[in-house]
Amino acid sequence: MMRIGEFALASGLTVKALHHYDAIDLLKPARVTANGYRTYSPRQLREAATIRALRNIGLALDTVAEALSNPHYINSFIERHRAHVADERARQDADAAQGSALIDSLELDYTVRRRSMPAQHWVGLQHEIRNLELAQVESPLATLRMALTEAGHTISGPWWTTLRQTAEAEVVEVLFCWPTTQIPAEPVGISGTIVESGTLPARDELFVPLETSDDDSDLGDLGAEAAQIAMIEQAKDDGLELVHGSIRQVGVLADDGTPEAIELVIAIQ
Which of 38, 126, 144, 170 could disulfide-link to 4, CB 3.0 to 4.6 Å? Predict the structure, then answer.
């Protein structure tokens, strides 16, 4: 038998760790003497080495215990953990790239412009997104445009999108919209979706042209956050009051109807 200090040296585990593993029933001593000394069998060194290896890999203690209970599947536990680590590393890399891109965009000089716009009817297709991650949807703008055309409605300008906060903090609604010559008298039905309509009032607005993508439904950064900051700063400098919740991304289309640019727009009072 080996006393705890001797077992710790042989196994590469600390005495403190062995006390903890005993307390949580992960690695019990083979025997506890009458005066309270913990002793271990040399045969427990293999189990101790397995625990140390799995902990060094990064497995949580409850997962280590589960792996020890299923020794024939230990490699499966390791591979599952490696996949999780790879996913987490990819997420961290993406976050770092996004953060770097945002810092770079904050250094750009955005030209904030102002214009007056007439009232505008619209029809919008609604989707919910969680944590600002847009789930894959089937060409929402194209789907909506086709439904409007089939119902006999006339598109009167470029598409636009906007985000709306919901009662649930992590969930926002994204509205994909086309302007129309009139509000539909009958609801526009698209299976599995929520379609709504309304009228943007006549307004003055600030806008900044943004870089576009090939996907006309893209709600990626595209410099939007930095441009929004530039517009808010410009409004403050000019003594203007912004209309809360009026930020939109508006498509700029070429003569052939292909996406040419995106404008970030916010209404002012």
Answer: 38
Are 218 and 159 in contact, with CB atoms under 8 Å apart? no
Residue 120's closest CA among 212, 250, 269, 262? Answer: 250
Average pLDDT score over residue span 28-39: 92
SS3 76: helix
How far is 252 from 224, CA to CA, in rounded Å? 15
Segment 190-210 mean pLDDT:
91
Return the structure tokens found at 50: 């397995």
Q: Are 9 and 48 in contact (CB under 8 A)?
A: no
> Hunting for tokens 């250094």 — which residue is that?
107
SS3 assignment, position 202:
coil
Distance CA 266, CA 197 (A): 19
DSSP label at residue 73: G
pLDDT of residue 219: 43
Phi and psi dihedrals of 135, rounded to 5? -65, 160
